[in-house]
Amino acid sequence: MGPGAWKLSLLLFLTFWTCSQALAKNPILSRIRRATENDGDNKRCSYTFLVPEQKITGPICAARGYTTDKDRVTRLDVAAVRDLLSKQRRETETLKLVVDVDGNLVNEMKLLRKESRNMNSRVTQLYMQLLHEIIRKRDNSLELAQLETRILNATTESLRLASRYRDLEAKYAALSAVVNNQSALIGELEERCAQVYSRRHDHPPLGPPLVQVVPENIPVNVPRFTNEIQRDNARFSRERGSRSGPAPTSGSIEKPIQRNFSTEGPFRDCLDAQEAGHSTSGMYLIKPDEADRPVQVWCEQDIDNGGWTVLQTRKDGSVNFFRNWENYKSGFGNIDGEYWLGLESIYSLGRQSDYKLLIELEDWMGKKVYAQYGSFHLEPASQDYRLRLGTYQGNAGDSLSSHNGKQFTTLDRDKDAFSGNCAHFHKGGWWYNACGQTNLNGVWYNGGVYRSKFQDGIFWADYGGGFYSMKSVRMMIRPID
Ligand SMILES: [Ca+2]
To answer: From start to end residue, where is composition biased (Basic and acidic residues) (predicted)?
Structure first.
């Protein structure tokens, strides 16, 4: 194939490729199109290639039926085509650049989509967190509501209590007023009593000076305070009448119990019984030498070699000791319980021999102490059974020596050194001074420490002071060895 044929083929190809693209712009093709206008609105290109045998320098496009020189392809046309080609190449390059840019955009789009997915995930996560937070806050709200309800209930309760407190305060005020009125009334009555008493007597009924309390001797761990006498004593009071007044009982020893009772005798005293072979503690019949009649006593044969004749016993409050002269003279109580032997019998005993006195004291902790006096006897009834004591020894303290030489005083026979009647204040007969450091015939208080206007318990000042009532006491005598 020669150069002319190459050129023609190239022209054909380019013309065909650009036919539909650049038909309107290209002036050459416009001319070619003119050759096809007869085809009407189909706008199809239809070309006829004439290949001359002579040498030609360029492609020849001849419309069907036209072969004029002016329609022949010239070098200018080739140049134009080349120009067009280069332009197409540039456009191609431009398109490639655009494509590259589009590729970048696609990548960016992919990145954006990925970010979008991440954002969606993050939003979902945040949404879940928010939901959780909402639920938690709702729970908190429930708890808060419950708390508020509880606070409301507590407030209501406190208001109710405050209301009750106010009511109680009002009642307390009313009761206080009543108590104050009663106190005033009592004070008025006391004043009237004092006036009446002062008209009848030269001296006002002032109480005796209180015995000095000895705190260091009060037994520790005192079970409880009390101002009540034991129940048994209350029963006794019901049976025998008020304990505050002298009981009109007979002076004889009451109802001997046939237990530990010796039918032998009578003996001179308990040492005599012991020496007769009776080494058991119990009830015995004795008759002092000058006594008119025998009496029952409790003989203590188990302590300190035995032979002790018990004159007095307190241990349970079962016997009332707030009695008159005749009772104290002849004796009262139960031999195996609480009793008072009787001033006359004690006097008779003391006349027949030289005796020593042992006083045994037991506190409410179960501790026992004693006070012993080297000699003991009473003067006769004409001397009101004046007390005569020897030297003290023991561990209870000497509270009785201040009563030595004193006459016996009862509610109805005042022989003490005090302006009033000590038996009235101390509630029992005793060898009172004014009034003294001890009274073992006072009220049996349960528990030890007691509250009372006067010291009317069974007290021994040197052991426990004036307001400690001993649990049990015994007074007993034995011939001096
Ligand atoms: Ca007096």
So the answer is: 229-242
